[in-house]
Amino acid sequence: xxxxxxxxxxxxxxxxxxxxxxxxxxxxxxxxxxxxxxxxxxxxxxxxxxxxxxxxxxxxxxxxxxxxxxxxxxxxxxxxxxxxxxxxxxxxxxxxxxxxxxxxxxxxxxxxxxxxxxxxxxxxxxxxxxxxxxxxxxxxxxxxxxxxxxxxxxxxxxxxxxxxxxxxxxxxxxx
Length: 175
Prior knowledge:
Structural class: alpha+beta
Strand content: 25-35%
Order of helices and strands: HEHHEEEEEEEEEEH
Shape: globular
Number of domains: 1
Number of helices: 4
Largest sheet: 7 strands, antiparallel
């Protein structure tokens, strides 16, 4: 018969396993947002002269390859998406995060959040019916309605995460 491990040895092993599992669980994909959309930013700025507000980075819950796309761009606005598959086009199965802007747009419903610089915003949590809608934060800055949608957030942190991303985007200024 082998030796029975001591309580100290078992406790130490449990602590090591806990920290390893925590590191794996918290490891997601860190995305440099402006770098992901580098090619798209040039097209929007040259063609439409719209200020593009993007946070510097964000962390996705899971580790995965991320695809950036310019879904639409006009003098009135733009739509940029991060997806888990190429050519996703906002399909529920692969859509991760979206950034939109609409010149002259208005908040849908009453403001329920005030951002760091006083901009009024509206947060809507994720909701599911026939399909699921991502958590959304809409805000007005400089006469433009900006929106950040994220389907990769835990419900308990969605609001604070989106507010942080919006404040980061405003602080960074146009990209």
